[in-house]
Design brief:
The structure is a single chain. This protein is mainly beta and 840 residues long. It contains nine helices and 43 strands. A hairpin with a 4-residue loop joins strand 27 (465-478) and strand 28 (483-494). The two termini are 50 Å apart.
Length: 840
C-alpha cells in the first residue's frame, strides 16, 4: 500500500492542510466557530482555543467563517499541496435597522417575521425524502469542583487521579470522539451506523448520538434524553409560539446577497419550557439561518443548570439547508460535583439521493462496527475535523498510556496483585455492618464473592422473634464465552422459635450474539436457575411488605403485617430473552408447606385494645392452614411488538417501541406425586408509558385473570392483590397504597386490575410560585381491582414528586367494596431516581 501511495503521489500534487486561528473583535481566540467551503456542505469547527484545520485537494477555494453573533468572513485561497495558514478575525455582527414606524400600541416587526417562519416551517421540518451524512461528535466534560465524598463514601486521592482531576477538583473527567453515519428516509425512518469511537482512558465507544436538534418541530427534544426535560421545549417558531414568547427585531444583515433578520427571543413567563436568546431568519423564504438559544433552571431543566445551543444551517442542495455544525454547552451541579461540558457536532458528506439496500431500515436503529473502538491514533489524526486542544491531547496521551500499561500482558500480574491488595483486609466491621466484595481479577475467568453484612440483615417478627440472615454470592465468569455461574447460599435463624433454615440458589447464564454477513445479527440471553432447601416465605410470593418495615411497625406500633410460613422446597426455572425481545420464563416448584404460629408478643410500645393478629391471612381463612405438599408449574410470556434495538459489536440492547408491553401467564397446580393442589390459573396484561410532551407523561398497567379450575387451592396459591399498610409507598403501578394485604385474595374465575398515573412534569405547578421555584411536580392517578360486587377496591391519589430531586408524597383516598375506606399519605421515590414500569 505504501508503494502504491508513493507512485500515485508522483503523478500529481498531494492534499494540503489549511488551518489557522479564529479570533474575536478583541483578538481573543473564538472557540467553536465554523469554517465551510463555499458552494459545498463540507466544513469544520474550531476547537476551544479557536484553531481549525481542513485537508483539501489542490485547487482554488473560498472559505467562509461563521459564528452566531459575528459577521461572516470569506477568504479565497489556493491549495498547492503544502500547509497553508489562513486566520480569521471576526467582528461583532452589525445589523441594519429597517425604517419601521411602530405606532403606540403597534407590534414589533419581529412578530410578522416569526409568523412567516411558522407558516413555512412545514416545508423545512423534513425537506428531503432521504439523505445520508457523516457526523463527527466530540464530547468534553470537565469539573470545576469535586466533593470530598459522594453518597457517604469518601473519594480517595487515588480515585481523583484516575478521574483526571487535580487536588482542587479541576480537570477533564470525560473525553470522547466518534464518527457516525446518519441515514434518513421518509416517513420518519432513521438509522445510525457508528463507524468509529474513542474514549479517553478506556476501550469504550464514546458518545455516538448525533444531537440533531430540529427547531422546525413544535416540541424540541434536546439530546433525545427525557431526563433533561420530559416535556421537551417549545420551539421559538412552534405553531403556538406567539402565546409563549415575546420577540424583538434587532435588525438585519446580508450574506451572499441574502437578507437575514435577527430576532431576540424572550419567554413570556418564567418556569415554562422555553428558550431565550437570538434566532436568525432569512428574508423571503423564512428559514432558520442560525441561532443561539439558552435554557436555564427556570426553563425546567432537570439534571443541568444551563444549556446553550449554537447552530449553523448550511445549504446542501438546491433550496435545501441542513445543520452544518452544532455546539451544545452545559453546566451542572449535582451531588457536590460542579462541572461544564460541550457536545460538538460537525456534519459533512451530505448525500441527498442515497440508495439503500433492501431491508436497510429495520428494527436496529443504531449499529456499531465490529472494529468501532480498535482504530489507531493515526486514524483519528487523519479523520478528525476539529483540532485537539493541547489539554485534550494530553488527556488522551496520559489516560490512554495508563490504560495500556494496566492492560499490557507484561504488567497484568502486577496490576492484578495491586488490585487484590487494594481490596483491603476483611474486618469485623465489614462482616457485621459494611459488607464486602472480593475478586481474584483473573484475566480469563474471574472469580468473585460478595458478603452481605449481618447487622443490616437482622429483622424482627412475632413468629421468629429476632431473625438473623446470612448470605454470600459467589460468581465465576467466562467473559470471552459470555457465560457465568452464580451460587448463593443462605442461612436464617429465628431466636424465638429457634428454627434454622438453609437453602441455596445456583444460576447458569449465557449470552449469545451471532453477527450475519450484512452486519446485522441475532442475540439471546438465557439462564437456568436451580434452588432448594428449607426457607421462610410470605403467603404472597410478591412479598408485599419488607422485613424492615414490618420490624418498625411491630416494635413501634404493635402491628404484625408480615405473614409467613416455612417450606422444604426444590425449584428449577428457565428464562430466555429472544432476539425480538420476546421473553419466556418456565418454572417447576415443589413445596412441603409447614404452618408457623406467633412465638413472641414483644413490642417496645403497647397500645390499649391492640393485639397482634395470627400468623396467617385471617381475613380469608378462619384457622391456620394444615401442612400439605404442592407441585406447580408455570409459564410466563412478555413481548413488546415493534421493539427497536441498538446493536453493539457483541450484543443487542432494546430501546423501546411505540406499542405497549404485553404479559401472559399460566400456572398449573399438579395433583400428582403426592401433591395436594389442583388448580389452573391464568392472567393477561399490558403496560406502557406515553409521553405527551407539554401535557405530561401517562403510565398505565392493566391486567385480568382468574381460575379456570379451583378444585384444591390453598391460601398460598390464591390470587393476591398487593396491598400496603405502611407509610412507605409500595411499588407504583403494581400495588394498592391503602389496601389490606390479604382481605381480597381470591380464587374467583375472573378478576380485573388497573393502575394509571399521570406525571404532569411541571404542568400546573409551574404556575404556583413556591412549587415552581422548588421544581416540585404534580402526579395523580388511580388504582383499582374488581372481583365481584362484594370484592372490589378503588383508590385515587394526588401528590408531589421531584421533592429534593428524589422523593414523592401522595395523598390517597380508598374505597373498599363500594364504601369509603380510609385516607392516608404515602412517601416514596419519584424524581431523579423514579422508577419505570416493571418489565420495561
Amino acid at each position: 500500500m505504501g508503494i502504491l501511495l508513493a507512485l500515485l503521489s508522483g503523478f500529481g500534487a498531494t492534499a494540503g492542510r489549511v488551518g489557522g486561528l479564529i479570533t474575536d473583535e478583541k483578538g481573543e481566540p473564538l472557540p467553536y466557530a465554523s469554517v465551510f467551503i463555499k458552494g459545498s456542505s463540507r466544513g469544520t469547527t474550531a476547537n476551544n482555543q479557536g484553531r481549525y484545520f481542513l485537508d483539501l485537494d489542490p485547487g482554488t477555494y473560498t472559505l467562509y467563517c461563521q459564528h452566531v453573533g459575528y459577521a461572516r468572513q470569506e477568504r479565497e485561497i489556493r491549495v498547492d499541496g503544502s500547509d497553508l495558514e489562513v486566520g480569521f478575525h471576526m467582528e461583532l455582527l452589525q445589523t441594519t435597522m429597517k425604517e419601521v414606524i411602530i405606532r403606540p400600541g403597534g407590534e414589533d416587526p419581529a412578530y410578522e417575521i416569526i409568523r412567516q417562519a411558522i407558516r413555512k416551517k412545514k416545508d423545512y421540518v423534513e425537506p428531503l425524502d432521504s439523505f445520508t451524512c457523516e457526523a463527527y461528535i466530540k464530547t468534553l466534560i470537565r469539573t470545576r469542583k469535586v466533593p470530598a465524598q459522594i453518597l457517604g463514601k469518601k473519594i480517595e486521592q487515588s480515585d481523583r487521579r484516575n478521574m483526571g482531576v487535580d487536588s482542587a477538583g479541576r480537570g477533564i473527567i470525560y473525553l470522547s470522539e466518534s464518527l457516525t453515519k446518519v441515514a434518513f428516509k421518509k416517513p420518519g425512518q432513521t438509522k445510525l451506523e457508528v463507524i468509529s469511537g474513542r474514549e479517553s482512558g478506556s476501550n469504550g465507544f464514546g458518545f455516538n448520538f448525533p444531537t440533531f436538534t430540529n427547531f422546525y418541530q413544535n416540541n424540541v427534544n434536546v439530546f433525545a434524553v427525557t431526563r433533561i426535560s420530559p416535556r421537551g421545549f417549545i420551539s421559538p417558531i412552534a405553531d403556538g409560539a406567539l402565546s409563549y414568547y415575546r420577540y424583538k427585531y434587532l435588525g438585519s444583515f446580508y450574506e451572499d446577497g441574502r437578507e437575514i433578520n435577527q430576532i431576540r427571543v424572550i419567554p413570556r413567563r418564567k418556569y415554562e419550557p422555553l428558550f431565550s436568546g437570538t434566532i436568525n431568519i432569512t428574508e423571503g423564504d423564512w428559514r432558520i439561518h442560525s441561532l443561539d438559544l439558552v435554557l436555564l433552571k427556570e426553563s425546567q431543566l432537570q439534571l443541568l443548570d444551563t444549556l446553550e445551543i449554537k447552530q449553523q444551517q448550511v445549504p446542501v442542495g438546491n433550496q435545501v439547508w441542513r445543520t452544518g455544525a452544532q455546539t451544545v454547552y452545559f453546566t451542572f451541579k449535582i451531588f457536590g460535583f460542579d462541572g461544564v461540558g460541550v457536545f460538538l457536532n460537525v456534519y459533512n458528506k451530505y448525500d441527498l439521493a442515497p440508495v439503500f439496500r433492501k431491508h436497510y431500515f429495520n428494527n436496529v436503529v443504531m449499529a456499531y462496527d465490529t472494529a468501532v473502538n480498535k482504530k489507531p491514533t493515526t486514524y483519528w489524526d487523519t479523520l478528525r475535523p476539529v483540532q485537539l486542544a493541547p489539554e485534550e491531547a494530553r488527556n488522551y496521551q496520559v489516560k490512554d498510556s495508563l490504560f495500556a500499561t494496566q492492560h499490557d500482558s507484561a504488567t497484568e500480574k502486577r496490576r492484578t496483585d495491586s488490585l487484590r491488595r487494594n481490596q483491603g483486609r476483611i474486618s469485623a466491621g465489614k462482616i457485621l455492618w459494611k459488607g464486602f466484595e472480593r475478586s481474584d481479577y483473573h484475566p480469563v475467568h474471574p472469580f468473585s464473592y460478595k458478603w452481605e453484612p449481618l447487622l443490616k440483615n437482622i429483622s424482627y417478627n412475632t413468629v421468629e422473634g429476632v431473625v438473623a440472615n446470612a448470605a454470600v454470592t459467589l460468581r465465576k465468569a467466562w467473559p470471552a464465552a459470555r457465560q457465568q455461574v452464580t451460587f448463593i447460599p443462605h442461612l436464617r435463624y429465628g431466636f424465638s422459635n429457634t428454627h434454622l433454615n438453609a437453602w441455596a440458589t445456583l444460576q447458569l447464564s449465557r449470552r449469545v450474539f451471532n453477527r450475519d454477513a450484512d452486519g446485522t445479527g441475532t442475540a439471546s440471553r438465557s439462564s437456568w436457575t436451580f434452588s432448594g432447601g428449607k426457607r421462610v416465605s410470605q403467603f404472597n410470593a410478591d412479598n408485599p411488605i419488607t422485613p424492615l418495615f414490618n420490624t418498625l411497625y411491630t416494635l413501634l406500633f404493635e402491628r404484625n403485617y408480615l405473614k409467613i410460613y416455612e417450606n422444604y422446597f426444590g425449584a428449577v426455572s428457565w428464562n430466555k430473552r429472544f432476539d425480538n425481545d420476546l421473553r419466556l420464563t418456565a418454572d417447576l416448584l415443589y413445596e412441603d408447606r409447614l404452618p408457623l404460629d406467633n412465638s413472641t408478643d414483644f413490642t417496645i410500645f403497647k397500645y390499649e385494645g391492640r393485639v397482634f393478629t395470627p400468623n396467617y391471612p385471617y381475613e380469608k381463612i378462619a384457622t391456620q392452614f394444615s401442612r400439605h405438599q404442592a407441585l406447580a408449574a408455570g409459564l410466563n410470556i412478555q413481548y413488546k411488538p415493534g421493539q427497536r434495538f441498538i446493536q453493539f459489536p457483541r450484543g443487542k440492547v432494546p430501546v423501546g417501541s411505540k406499542y405497549p408491553t404485553f404479559y401472559a401467564s399460566y400456572r398449573k397446580g399438579i395433583a400428582a406425586l403426592g401433591s395436594d393442589v389442583d388448580y389452573d390459573k391464568w392472567s393477561f396484561g399490558l403496560s406502557d408509558e406515553i409521553n405527551f410532551k407539554l401535557l405530561g407523561a401517562l403510565k398505565y398497567r392493566f391486567s385480568m385473570g382468574g381460575f379456570l379450575n379451583s378444585k384444591q387451592v390453598y391460601i398460598q396459591d390464591y390470587q393476591h392483590f398487593n396491598g400496603n399498610q405502611v407509610f412507605y409507598a409500595s411499588e407504583y403501578l403494581n400495588s394498592f397504597q391503602l389496601a389490606p394485604y390479604y382481605a381480597n385474595s381470591t380464587v374467583a374465575p375472573f378478576y380485573a386490575v388497573g393502575h394509571i398515573e399521570h406525571h404532569f412534569n411541571g404542568l400546573l405547578t409551574n404556575k404556583i410560585p413556591v412549587f415552581r421555584k422548588l421544581n416540585w411536580q404534580l402526579v395523580a392517578g388511580s388504582n383499582a381491582f374488581y372481583v365481584n360486587t362484594d370484592s372490589n377496591y378503588a383508590e385515587v391519589f394526588a401528590g408531589l414528586e421531584n421533592i429534593l430531586k428524589v422523593f414523592r408524597v401522595d395523598v390517597v383516598a380508598a374505597y373498599l367494596n363500594g364504601h369509603r375506606g380510609q385516607a392516608g399519605v404515602r412517601v416514596g421515590f419519584g424524581g431523579l431516581f423514579g422508577g419505570s414500569v416493571r418489565g420495561r
